[in-house]
Design brief:
mainly alpha
Length: 338
């Protein structure tokens, strides 16, 4: 059953510090107002990533009370650029870098057949409340899933463009609205007894997942980072089939609703084909014409793995300690045991 949702109409999020509070309050007014300075915000912290996510959302669906003029307000764009620079600098500092693309791609393909991580935990030992928490985390990602990749299309040429569009066509349901992957995830949320509305759980999802989604927007919005966006996209498509297969096994063990299984089964089937299209058609063609982007593609792969590992560490540390991995927001939506 496909869940029909109204057009996104989310309210501004709850601030998580001085920076996000300043951004949220700024957006309640009219464009052109004085914009605060960045200050000493943690490049991986809750405050910076909620503020950055809020700025990026203006390029997606926006917020109910926010004047559309804020999307291109010069002052706000300047603050966003400062946040982006701090985040990107931290990513560059925390990955090895280099230009050995073949080694990076081979590593993705030879990842241990049964790696330790949240998905293996869910398959072998997870309880239903933990599975629902995982869905809540990933909702922030899957509500957007393929959207940031669309920004790179006009920045590619020839076979690279054609191949990436072919993958995107599948991500967007092959021309069928009910098969759009974001819609399939909304159906999954409903099947799990969770709220399927766009970004409904933003307030309870902590920084590790926000950072991952912000990275996608960062790479997509900047032409200079088109190689990194392609590297990220390839990483997702190459690693998705085995992880999705383990999720299918976990969901069947937990007797989950068919809509939950359907979403991951779709990724087992579709992404197995996408892997070769991304590696040969997109990356191969891109670098044949722009070899200087090799290091950027490598950076995109490494940054994706870094942030996925940070997310996995946060979730597993919480679950192994017997506590929720979501933020405890008084009066806010919860995704675990309610």
């Amino acid at each position: 059953m496909t869940v029909t949702t109204d057009a996104p109409s989310q309210e501004l999020p709850r601030p998580r510090g001085e920076l996000s509070h300043a951004v949220v309050e700024l957006l309640r007014g009219t464009p052109g107002r004085s914009v605060p300075r960045l200050g000493p915000a943690d490049p991986y912290g809750e405050d910076l990533h909620l503020a950055l996510h809020t700025c990026y959302e203006l390029h997606y669906h926006g917020f109910v009370p926010v004047d559309p003029g804020w999307e291109w307000d010069p002052g706000l764009l300047g603050l966003r650029a400062a946040m982006e620079q701090r985040f990107q600098r931290a990513l560059c500092d925390d990955v090895p870098g280099g230009a050995d693309l073949d080694a990076e791609l081979d590593h993705l393909l030879v990842t241990p057949a049964d790696p330790a991580g949240p998905i293996r935990f869910l398959r072998d030992d997870g309880e239903w409340w933990q599975m629902r928490e995982y869905f809540v985390h990933r909702s922030i990602y899957h509500h957007k899933e393929a959207d940031p990749y669309a920004w790179v299309i006009p920045r590619l040429r020839g076979q690279a463009k054609a191949s990436l569009v072919a993958v995107e066509f599948d991500e967007f349901g092959g021309g069928r609205g009910e098969r759009v992957h974001a819609q399939l995830y909304a159906d999954l949320l409903a099947g799990a007894g969770l709220n399927a509305e766009y970004l409904h759980y933003l307030d309870v999802v902590p920084a590790p997942m926000l950072a991952l989604v912000n990275m996608m927007s960062l790479f997509g919005l900047h032409r200079s980072l088109r190689g990194a966006l392609v590297g990220h996209f390839a990483t997702v498509e190459i690693t998705s089939p085995p992880g999705s297969q383990r999720m299918v096994e976990a969901l069947r063990r937990l007797a989950a609703d068919p809509a939950c299984v359907r979403f991951y089964r779709e990724h087992v089937e579709a992404d197995a084909v996408h892997e070769q299209v991304m590696r040969t058609g997109v990356i191969g063609s891109l670098l044949a014409h722009e070899p200087h982007l090799t290091e950027s593609v490598v950076f995109g792969i490494q940054a994706t793995n870094l942030l996925e590992d940070r997310f996995a560490d946060h979730v597993l540390e919480s679950w192994r300690a017997g506590r929720s991995s979501l933020r405890d927001v008084e009066g806010g939506p919860r995704g675990s045991r309610d």
